[in-house]
Amino acid sequence: MRHAGSHEDRSGAERPADYLSRLAASELGQAYKSLVVDELRIVAGATVVDLGCGPGADLAAFAAATGSTGRVLGIDSDVQAVAEAAAEFADIGQVEIRAGDIHDLDLADGSVDRVHTDRVLQHVAHPDVVIGEAARVLRPGGIAAFAEPDWDTLVIDFPEPATPIAYRRFITDRVVRNSRIGRQIPGLCERTGLQPARVIPVTAVFRDTAEADRVFGFQRVTARAVRAGYLSDAAGATWLEHLRTERLFASVTLFVTLAMRPR
To answer: Where are the domains of the chain?
Structure first.
């Protein structure tokens, strides 16, 4: 079973690194990544751990914030993504990439200043365990940022409302393991010893079908929804034709939860 960094759907149809890179380049990715770095308030010399780092989309920004005296550690269970990230950052001395399970970190208690996840907890087997590990390794006063979507917030304009509702229900029921994790993280933080300080909603609105498709994979997901009985063949065909030919309106909300380990 995949754990850290597993951003593929439950069919295993897509590599995590492909999903990470594509969404990082999207409007949604660009909207919140710089915000997260600012909110983490990383200082020179800090130690930052990126859990489920994938191909390393966030590591360069963390390295720039920590400076040459800091340390940035990326951990992911996808061995191929780890190899790609390690090659990408081979010349940046303060960046280290490791293969590992973020449910069981090989890090000492209270040894890091910042912890980060980005669309990782929606896929892991036990989000509470991962957040507990984040709490354990953070120093007192250390900050964690968990950026995770809530797929119940997905809305897509369509003349027959039942179709996008069924499409969304397929995603929340069958595609994303922890599809409502965005709303659950503050409570999980409180139960694992972190103090939630702030929750920032980031809503992406897509008007361009090609850009949205890079994030949502309409053709692939619709085909699966039809096979699973959430949409009829006719409804699926009409839905895809509408997405191809009509002006799109789609949106989804990601929640950035910032939490601190008490001093």
So the answer is: 16-154+177-206+252-260
Q: Let me know if 153 is exposed, middle or buried by CB neighbors in 10 A (0-12, 13-18, 19+).
A: middle
- Closest listed residue to residue 65, CA positions, set 37, 89, 90: 37
DSSP strand pairing (250-260 vs 195-206) = antiparallel
Strand partners, 216: none
Q: How many beta carbons lie within 10 A of that of residue 187, not counting itself?
A: 12
Q: Which CATH number fits domain 16-154+177-206+252-260: 3.40.50.150, 3.30.70.360, 3.90.228.20, 3.40.1260.10?
A: 3.40.50.150
Q: What's the rounded Cα separation, in Å, for the pair 79 and 8?
A: 15
Structure tokens given for 26: 């999207």
- pLDDT values of the chain reduced to their tens digit, one per residue, 263 residues: 233 333 334 444 454 445 445 555 665 666 688 899 999 999 999 999 999 999 999 999 999 999 999 999 999 999 999 999 999 999 999 999 999 999 999 999 999 999 999 999 999 999 999 999 999 999 999 999 999 999 999 999 999 999 999 999 999 999 999 999 999 999 999 999 999 999 999 998 899 998 888 888 999 999 999 999 999 999 999 999 999 999 999 999 999 999 999 99
List the structure tokens of 262.
Answer: 């008490």
Q: Which helix (H) or strand (E) holds 237?
A: helix 233-245
**Contact of 156 with 167, CB cutoff 8 Å:** yes
148 burial (CB, 10 Å; 0-12 / 13-18 / 19+) is buried
